[in-house]
Amino acid sequence: MSEVIEAATGSLTQDDWQRRYAGALMNTFGPPQRVLVRGEGCYVWDADGNRYLDLLAGIAVNALGHAHPTLTGAISAQLGTLGHISNFFASPTQITLAERLLALVVDGGAPAGGRVFFTNSGTEAMEAAFKLARRHGGPDRDRILALQGAFHGRSMGALALTAKAAYREPFEPLPGGVEHLPFGDLTALEAAFADGGGRVAALIVEPVQGEAGVRALPPGYLAAAREITSAHGALLILDEVQSGMGRTGTWMGHHLPHIGGGVVPDAIALAKGLGGGFPMGALVAVTEEAAALLTPGQHGTTFGGNPVASAAALATIHVIERDGLLANATTVGQHLRTEVAALDHPLVTGCRGEGLLIAIELAEPVAPAVAAAALRRGYIVNAVAPDAIRLAPPLILTTAQADALVADLPTILTEASAA
């Protein structure tokens, strides 16, 4: 296999690969910032041999970093035993992973009757959540509530839940019935249910909004949302695609006491870090009522929950537990936020987030210039908003690696300001 990889990469430069990319791939992402050829731990290398500290982890995906031996070993061993079988059949890895997720997604484990539907991505998990909401109550419950700033994916159902107009408008009309409420506004939530609350099928929220600039729901919001949805017979569905699987220093973002406060939702969408870099997603129906909504023939997937993806997810969960990565995300994340906030740089107004899902707040809308300057200095970060830089590094990030960014950040910010 190494010979195949070498033949594919050869001795071509960044410029060579950029030209080939432009001639072969759809222009859905714009030109790639770099062409990366290998990774190890928290570092990646480009086609010209330059090394970068990866502080984005494939947008919160590579929970164990790159080329983690336990993860790659599990994938290789499973693929050498049983690869794809279709969902006419089941595998031990699929069943075991479903059991593990039911035990992890809510404190103390899901109540009896919870079930899992596996997908290949977060968007697909949210499509399943959308259909779950549609099935709940039938045509008499024609309202689905989401929040302003929400990002739930780009396929048509998930896009209807996503708030950003620039993503939505080119593809309208979208599936109807979705209303976006002001973020974290309990008064607006109460008003939405006071006016036709019996027609609400579901409230769908992210405990921490990632694409909106790493914004956590205010304390008490989820607890009140659970109370209100239960009173009106509506589902509470959490999108933990970005905030789940240890990213916030707890298995789920809503496990943090100041965010969730022991809330038990009806369903939770997962992906990104679930497979440690292997495409994997899931919709976990926590309550028995939600688990019974989709019956044979009403939803499906070809690749979801295949043995290899399930083995990757099991290995990822195992390493997070074995190596204490929840505690590491909490400790290193807090250290990083404290040190960035202490820089006293005029461009930095604050640093928010949970665990290793962090936003550096900027005084001016120069985030793209900061991300470009960081890349030139050997750091991969993300301009998640005009005035915010997102960090979502592997959960194995060390304090020393975090300190390297902090040491170089003043120079990066100065270069960006000059640009």
Topology:
Layout: H1 2-9, H2 14-24, E1 36-40, E2 43-46, E3 51-54, H3 57-60, H4 69-79, H5 92-104, E4 115-119, H6 122-135, E5 143-147, H7 156-161, H8 165-168, E6 178-181, H9 186-194, E7 200-205, E8 208-209, E9 215-216, H10 221-231, E10 235-239, E11 267-270, E12 281-285, H11 288-291, H12 307-322, H13 325-341, E13 348-354, E14 357-362, H14 367-376, E15 379-380, E16 382-385, E17 388-391, H15 399-418
Parallel strand pairs: 3-15, 5-6, 5-7, 7-10, 10-11
Antiparallel strand pairs: 1-2, 2-3, 4-12, 8-9, 11-12, 13-14, 14-17, 16-17
Helix pairs in contact: 4-12, 5-12, 9-10, 13-15, 14-15
Question: Describe it for me?
Answer:
A seven-stranded mixed beta sheet has the order 4-12-11-10-7-5-6, with helices on both faces. Strands 1-2-3-15 form a four-stranded mixed beta sheet. It is α/β, with parallel strands linked by helices. The protein contains 15 helices and 17 strands. The chain has helices at 2-9, 14-24, 57-60, 69-79, 92-104, 122-135, 156-161, 165-168, 186-194, 221-231, 288-291, 307-322, 325-341, 367-376, 399-418, and strands at residues 36-40, 43-46, 51-54, 115-119, 143-147, 178-181, 200-205, 208-209, 215-216, 235-239, 267-270, 281-285, 348-354, 357-362, 379-380, 382-385, 388-391.
